[in-house]
Amino acid sequence: MDHGDPAPTKEAKEAEIVFAAINGCTTSLSLLFERYRPRLYAAAVALLGYTSDAEDVVHDTFLIVLRRLHQLREPAAIGGWLHAILKNQCLMHRRRAWPQARLDEAARFLGQMSEAESIESTIQNQELRDWVWTALQDLPELQRATVILRYFSCCNSYDEMSAILGVPIGTIRSRLFEAKTRLSKVLLALADKHDDEHEICLSNRQAFYQEAFKELYRGRRDDFLAHYADDLQLIWSTGTRSVGRAHLEVEVDDDLHTGVRIAPLRIMASGNLTVIEGAFINPPETPDHCPPGCVLVMREGAFQVSRLHIHLAPRQMRFED
């Protein structure tokens, strides 16, 4: 019996709305805005906090969309396109507010330099994150890796940090103390400056590794492995250490053979360090083949990764920007 054409999918319905909006249908445009407003506002709050600024950038995003909607070629990409515009507006807003925010924080430091909570609160302040990331590049590599894991990673307990970096907890504590002491001075020195270096580095690393993992699972194994040095140091949080890319090749080939994939959920970068928090996607027939999550800490050389720390996490990594 012919039941007619199948009902349109949710994606097809949204594509119809986008097409109608592009062609000047104000009702469709309003529907599109109302559908995405909550998600865009949530993303703005994550970047700017619960302030009127978050509402302002959502409004500015919609104004830009009104002018540029005709440029959208793929209706299915509307969500990513809107979020890209919003993120750019948030970054522009933070750049405009950057000098005063940092000078205010610097003034606070001048009066509270001896208080440990001063540097702690600054590192954890969402609005000052770019300032902190810029300052991190002046830290020695090992201190920088420790700070990134402690304040920006999901695996931030002393036990986890000790396992990932392969050093005693006492060493982790001393590195953090030294790092915070040095950071307080560096942050003050950078209070009246803005440097795009971190944003550029982060954007490039995120784009590279997102694409690298996609290409790996599309069959470009050799290209993926070529990013790692022949004499790669491979360090597992279990304490196992090995030298040589061949050891990584064994792990990658085993995952490809069993159908296991890594989905990079969060990519952080500072100077020659990259930290990736990912989720293991196991094949349906062996859902427990790998633990839920992983953390990769990589030392980037001029062209290849020279050292890779691998931590298998017993829980799912969080998905945050």
Overview features:
321 residues; 6-stranded mixed sheet; alpha+beta
Short description:
The protein has 321 residues and is of the alpha+beta class. The chain contains 12 helices and 6 strands.
Secondary structure layout plus pairing:
Blueprint: H1 10-22, H2 26-48, H3 52-68, H4 78-112, H5 116-123, H6 129-136, H7 141-152, H8 158-165, H9 169-189, H10 197-216, H11 221-225, E1 228-236, E2 241-243, H12 245-258, E3 261-270, E4 273-281, E5 293-300, E6 305-313
Parallel strand pairs: 1-6
Antiparallel strand pairs: 1-2, 3-4, 4-5, 5-6
Give a written overview of the molecule:
- The chain has twelve helices and six strands.
- It has helices at 10-22, 26-48, 52-68, 78-112, 116-123, 129-136, 141-152, 158-165, 169-189, 197-216, 221-225, 245-258, and strands at 228-236, 241-243, 261-270, 273-281, 293-300, 305-313.
- The protein has a six-stranded mixed sheet, sandwiched between helices.
- A hairpin with a 4-residue loop joins strand 1 (228-236) and strand 2 (241-243).
- Helix 7 (141-152) packs across helix 9.
- The chain is globular, with a radius of gyration of 23 Å.
